[in-house]
Amino acid sequence: MSTATDTANEDLQHDHHDDHHAHHAPSGITRWLFTTNHKDIGTLYLWFAFIMFLIGGAMAMVIRAELFQPGLQIVDPNFFNQMTTVHGLIMVFGAVMPAFTGLANWLVPMMIGAPDMALPRMNNWSFWILPFAFLILIGSLFLPGGGPNFGWTFYAPLSTTYSNDSTALFVFSVHIMGISSIMGAINVIVTIFNMRAPGMTWMKMPLFVWTWLITAFLLIAVMPVLAGAVTMVLTDKFFGTSFFDAAGGGDPVLFQHIFWFFGHPEVYIMILPAFGIISHIIPTFSRKKLFGYASMVYATASIALLSFIVWAHHMFTTGMPVGAELFFMFATMLISVPTGVKVFNWVATMWRGSMTFEVPMLFALAFIILFTIGGFSGLMLAITPVDFQYHDTYFVVAHFHYVLVTGAIFSIMAAVYYWLPKWTGKMFDVTLAKWHFWCSLISVNLLFFPMHFVGLAGMPRRIPDYSLQFADFNKWISIGGFAFGLSQLIFLAVLIKASRKQGEPVDDRVWEGAEGLEWEIPSPAPYHTFDTPPVVK
Amino acid sequence: MVIKLVTIVVGMFGFGFALVPLYDVFCEITGINGKTDNTAAVYESVIVDDSRTVTVEFLTRTHTGMPWKFEAQTQRIEVHPGELNTVEFYVRNPASRPIIGQAIPSVSPGTAALYLNKTECFCFNHQPLQAGEEALMPMQFYVDPQLPEDISFFTVQYTLFDVTANATETEKIAMTQR
After folding, report:
1. Which domain holds residue A289?
2. Burial of A504 (0-12, 13-18, 19+ CB in 10 A)
3. B23 and B42 fall within a common domain
4. How many domains in chain A?
5. DSSP-H helix ranges across A239-358
6. What is the rounded CA–CA span in Å between residue B37 and residue A226?
7. Cβ A119–B5 below 8 Å, yes or no?
8. Is B20 touching A (CB cutoff 8 A)?
9. What is the rounded CA–CA span in Å between residue A330 and residue A191?
10. I want to staple A247 with a disulfide (CB 3.0 to 4.6 A). Which of A360, A532, B157, B161 is the partner?
11. What is the pLDDT of residues A377-400, one digit of tens each?
12. Given an 8 Å threshold on Cβ–Cβ distance, is A119 in contact with B20?
C-alpha cells in the first residue's frame, strides 16, 4: 500500500492522510462496497455481526415466548423447529465468527505493526459474500414449506430424507459462509507470517494475534470438512447418492462423525480468540504483565490440537464400543488441563495487581467466572455414563450458552468496549455501558442458569412443549431471555452514540495500563497506520 | 504461502470425503458397527464345535414407506459354531405396483458381526416383487468357531428398504417383462 516516496511518519498522520496517495478514496456507499482498508472491513464485519446478533436474538425471543408456558400457543411446531435451527446457524456463523473476524481485521495489523492485511482485495470479497449467504438462509424461511427445520447440526436423515426442498438453499448458504471464513483465515495467516514489524518475534506477538493465528489454522482445517458434509447432504437429497442412507449402503451415524469432526474444532474457533482478548484486558486493568505468557501460547496450541481427537463425545449415545467411549471421555477431560492453565494465569495476573473496574474489565471478569461455569458443566457432560442422562436435554443447552454467550459474546463485548475509544477517538457513554453490563449479567444468569435444573430433571431440547412440572422454571427462563434481549438495545444505543463520535476525546493510550503497538498510534486510529513499520524492541 | 494454504483447504475438503471409505474400512476391521460382510462366504473344511451352542435371534422390520410384509420364519435358532444352517424369511408385496426391496443387516452386539459368515443371503441383492406377489427368501450361514467365548447370544436384524427409485434400468425392464 505505501509508496516509496511516502515518508510520512505516524505523527503526521491524520484523517485526510489518504490524500497523500495518488488516488482519492471513493465516497458514499462505494467507499464501503469497494474498500480494501482493514479498518473499514473490520467495521463492516462488526456491524454485520451485530445486526445478525439482533436477528438471531429475535428468533430466540420467539422460542422463549413459545416456551413461556406449557402447551402450544404462539407458533406451530414446524416453525418452532425452524427458529431453533436458524437461531443456531445465525449466532454461530453470522454473529460470533464474523465478529471475531472483524476484530482480527481491525486489530491484527495494528498489533503487529503492519500497514494493512496481506490480501486486501480478498478481504473485501470475504466480507461482501457474507450478506448474500444470510439473505439466502433467512429468505428460505419465507418459502412454501419453510426453511431448514432439522437443527443447526442438520443430522441425516432429518436433513436428507425428511427435509423440504429449501435444504438446497441451506446448503448453498453454508458453502458461502465457509468460503468467506476460509478466505478470512488465509488472510490472517499470511498477514501474521509475512507482515510483522521488525523485531516482532513469534514469542513477542500479542496473545490476540497468537490465538487468532491458531484459530485461522483450525478454520482452514475444518471448514472444508463442513463444506464436504453439506455437499454430501445435497447429493443424498437431490442426486440419489447414499452417503448417509442405509438402503444404499451408507450410514447415518457416519454423518455425525463427519459433522463433529468439523463441529468440535469449531467450538474452539469460537473461543480461542476470546482467550486472546481476555489476555489483553486483564493485564491492562490489573496494571501488571500477563502471568505466564509462554504457557498461554502453548495452552492455546494444545487445546487446538486436542480439539481434533474429541469429536465423538457428542455421540456417546450412538452405540459406540466402551473402549471408544472411554478414549473420547479421557481425551475430552484432558482439554480442561490447558484451559485450567489459562484461567489460573488470568487469576495470577490479577493477584496483587492494582485493579480497577472499567467496563471492559467488568465484562472480562464476568467472562472468567461464567465461562468457567460453562467449562465445568462441559466436564460433567464429558463423563460418558452421566452423558446418557444429560444428552439432548436443557443441561446441554445451558452448557453451550454459558460458553458461547457469557464466554464468546461477553469477550466480544469486552473487546468492543476496550478498543472502541481507539477506533473512534472518543470515550463511549460509560453510564450506559455500565447499565448494559449489569442488565446483561443479571438477565443472562436468570436466562441460562435454571436451564441446568430443568435439564437435569429431564426436559428435552428442541421441543416446543414440555411437561407441567417445568412450567415455573421456564417462566423465569423466558423472563430472563426477554430481559437479556432488551439489554442489548442499550448496547445498540452505546454503539450509535459512539459511531456519531459523541463523547470525551481520549489520548493515545486510552487506558492507563494498556500495552501494545495499537496504543502508540493516535486516537482515533488514522485511516492508514504503520506505512513505515515500527521497530519492536 | 497462499497457494500452500489453498492446498490445505482443498486437501481437507477431500479428506471430508475420504472419511466415508475410511469409516467403512475402520468398521470392517474392528467390527464395531454391527455391519456384516456383504459378499458370500465360502463354507469348506470348517470344524464344527459341538461343545458350545450359540443362540441367534432374527428380527425383521420395514423402513418407513415400505409396504411389504416381512417376517422371519425362524425367529430364534440354536446353532453349534461351524455348523451350516438355513433360515427363511417370508415377504409379500401387498401394494398394487411392483417394488424392489433391499434388506440391510445389523448385528448386535456389533463384535459378533465379524463371526457371522453368510454363504447365501437375500440381502446380497435387490429383491423384486410384483404386485401381490409373495416369496420365501433363504439365508444360509454359519458362525465362525473363533467367536469369543463370552458371546452366547446375538441378534441379527434386517431392515427392508424400498429401493425401487434407485433401481437400475435393466432391473426395471426385467421386472416389467416378468
Report:
1. 41-519
2. exposed
3. no
4. 1
5. 252-269, 272-286, 293-306, 322-334, 336-350
6. 30
7. no
8. yes
9. 36
10. B161
11. 999 999 999 999 999 999 999 999
12. no
